[in-house]
Amino acid sequence: MNRIILTVLALSISLFSGAKVVNKIEMPSEVTDILISDDAKYAVFSTKPDIGLFKAPKSELAVVSMESGDTLWTKKYHYLNDILIPSNQGLLVLREKEVICYDYISGNEKYKIKIFTTYLDSKNDKIVGYYKGKQNQIACFRLSDGCNLWTSKTDKIKSKIWEEALTQDSTSLIFFGDGIERVNLNTGELTRQDLKRSVVNKTENAGMLALGIAGAVLGSPYVLSSTLSDPARINSLGSDVVSDNDDCYYVSGKDGILCLDSTMNVRWSNSLRDYSCSKAHIFLNGDTLEFLNEGQGISGDRLKKYGKPFRASLNKHTGELIELKEFPDNHDEKLFGKNIEYAEQSIYIFNPFIKRFSIKEHKPGEYEVYAADGRLLTVNDDFEVIGQTPYEYYMHKIEEFENGKTMISKFLGSDKYLIIDSHGSVVDTIRSDNSFCIIRRNIVFTIENGYLMLNEID
């Protein structure tokens, strides 16, 4: 049966295969990483690190012009400690307490700022970070020249690194540390609400926090946060922030759900009968807020059970609990694997009869999870399987382009990406060596036989 499915899908794709290659750049040898500036004018290649017994491990970066293919300059950097960000205004090298900006053409240092960086936006020419000392300060600088735009004081930040930061709109940055805080990116005004999202994991020893970055694939804005690799704590005990058109922000922590206004004041809260909340998902369905609690958190780089899995329905305007139902304590590990993995991305399902993809809509009381063998399963409140999609028939949304086309793939880092139109028909297929893919506007960068390929989605 799987062979038939693969054949049908392959036939439907082959009718429309081939994206428009507009340029290709020969890459240096032994490349370990590739970065693309937000305006797609420059590529930054990192080469294999030089590791010696009595010297700090360093790698070399090379800045290459996309227009000419020429190497403009090279530089050594500490690949373990430095994070490279290819903004429009220059190549940024981020360290724990400073950021250095280098000019793309000359390689000269443009400026140095002594902050821990958390947010960069090339389009709006801003870089935001904070100082850690006797007085905690959050500051915003102009990305193009390093000029300070504003500084705000706060005595509430206790975390060495913000657990998570995200943008809700072009004027605000929301971050989680020892609470949830909103920063007005234009004025520096800070508003805050306490929100616990982690607990001590008594069975593990402390470990190192590692930095993660959102934006490397799709570009600006870039949001930096810790990846919470510390096994001494159980982290991610909460949901993402979900907003609606009423200027409300819905979010959960380990002690329940909050509805906040734009100034982070609580409109309502619900402790959900004192259930211990964990890694969770919030869905808005009309006047109802659907809450899915996984019953697990993240400790180190692993999922760890915490509390009980359950779902709840609430009135999104008042927070009144409509219904709460526990999921079964135990699950079929042969079917689902050791830990339940919920589908979090937008999923597209292929219909072999009309040869089109369509997005799978979320339905209250139904949840998409991955089976141990790769199938996509739909389960109900009792975790009974009420639907399934073969591995070959579903893909995840990677990017939606301005021209109405969407790029989908089995996962980010796949060797094949499909471009579908607004009707779900496959119009292009793009392949890449080494599972490499970076997107800048309507250009998809891939690798083929030692060349960086620029594929235009028109």
- Shape category: globular
Judged by helices, strands and strand pairing, the structural class is: mainly beta
Spatial order of strands in the largest sheet: 14-13-12-11-21-20
Task: Please work out how many helical segments DSSP would assign.
Answer: 2
Average pLDDT number: 83
Helix share, percent: under 10%
The CATH class assignment of the domain at 81-194 and 199-234 is Mainly Beta
CATH architectural name of the domain at 81-194 and 199-234: 7 Propeller
Distance between the termini: 35 Å
Tally the beta strands: 44
Low-confidence residue ranges: 1-18, 205-211
Strand % is over 45%
Largest sheet: 6 strands, antiparallel
Rounded to an integer in angstroms, the radius of gyration calculated over CA atoms is 23 Å
CATH topology of the domain at 81-194 and 199-234: Methylamine Dehydrogenase, Chain H
**Full CATH superfamily name of the domain at 81-194 and 199-234:** YVTN repeat-like/Quinoprotein amine dehydrogenase
